Amino acid sequence: MSVLDFMKQTSSIPDKYKTMTIPEMEERVRSIKEKMGSKLYIPCHHYQKDEVVQFADDTGDSLQLAQLARQNTDAQYIVFCGVHFMAETADILTSDDQVVMLPDLRAGCSMADMADLQQTERAWHTLQDVFGDTIVPLTYVNSTAAIKSFVGRHGGSCCTSSNAKKVLQWAFSQKERILFLPDQHLGRNTALDLGIPLEHMAVWDPIQNKLEYDGTVEDVRIILWKGHCSVHMNFTVQNIKDFRKKHPNASILVHPECTQEVVSQSDFAGSTNYIINMIEAAPAGSVWAIGTEMNLVSRLAQQHSDKTIYSLNPNMCPCLTMNRIDLPHLLWMLESIENDVILQQIVVASTVADEAQLALNRMLQLA
Ligand code: 13P
Ligand code: SF4
Question: 112-229 — its CATH code?
Fold first, then answer.
């Protein structure tokens, strides 16, 4: 069976879920959850749709979801409402007898797909030739298990947008330089935050297989993998100008996956969790533009009707892959568990998982 056939087979939801009403589906999810109790665990990323989030046992950003997966030893079935790399992380951090399922296998992440193992091995080889043994590799958790395993093997760590600063500080205590995968923007924004000037940052282009840098190589402190988030790239400096013109007294709050130009012209920048905490702590009557995924922005606007909340980009849409997980797919997973059928299980091979876990553990010890 080809990979395509496999994907078609495993991600085609039975027709019956297309004809059920929303109340019927909600009732079925509720009753299966009640019946299964703590044997079933549904963690949800903040970017998930409301129709799914309402059934979450926990919601969180990438860091919290990794921590929660590790702490949960009761659940036999973890139905992960997020994207593929998050489900892989949950599988790595839970025990072998816990089953992790992803309701729709098409819920990938375009950023994670921007760094594959072959490209990374090739880059590492060249960078070792140029810089010698002076580099610690770091990867944003938004990466495949294979990349996490590469990083673990070479003495590096994972990070999330919540702990990137701490992890970079740790890495600089280990070696002179960092290779930061796969999001150049989180890497650049965090390094700037640590006082590293742009002139000391190089970019690795995995397609051209080359280092982009104008200065003297000895000056390079961080090598940024040329990857990005296709959602956060949609916030622009023009959006900021337009918003400030209309709302001169408002504040702009963005995720550090946005470009450095956008982050530097915003008032605040931080992880998903930071964004939520900022809005919760904001005074009634305050006005905000938020530069992050649309499901979260809409939820914050709804939950904080005493504040005015806009998306920084008025034409923004949600993360399409996160949105693959919906109520019918969630119910499909739960009914299959009820019928003792395991579908769409995410299993990371132990050879990969062991080294990936080294990188995840380094991060979790620092977090
Ligand atoms: P955080 O959950 O770390 O804020 O990351 C955002 C994101 O893009 C997840 O895919
Ligand atoms: Fe990936 Fe960006 Fe979507 Fe997060 S928001 S899952 S980084 S594409």
Answer: 3.40.50.10800
> Which superfamily does 232-311 belong to?
NadA-like (3.40.50.10800)
Q: Is 142 in the pocket of ligand 1 (CB under 6 A)?
A: yes
191, β-bridge pairs: none
Give this prediction's pTM: 0.94
CA of 61 to the centre of ligand 2 (A): 12
For the stretch 19-33, pLDDT in tens is 999 999 999 999 999
Scored b (16 or more CB within 10 A) or e, 299-331 reads bbbeebeebebbbbbeebebbebbbbbbbbbbb
Ligand 1 atom having least distance to the Cα of 231: 8
Say if residue 104's pLDDT is above 90.
Answer: yes
Q: Name the fold adopted by 3-108+321-350.
A: Rossmann fold (3.40.50)
Domain ranges of the chain: 3-108+321-350, 112-229, 232-311
Residue matched to tokens 């970079």: 168
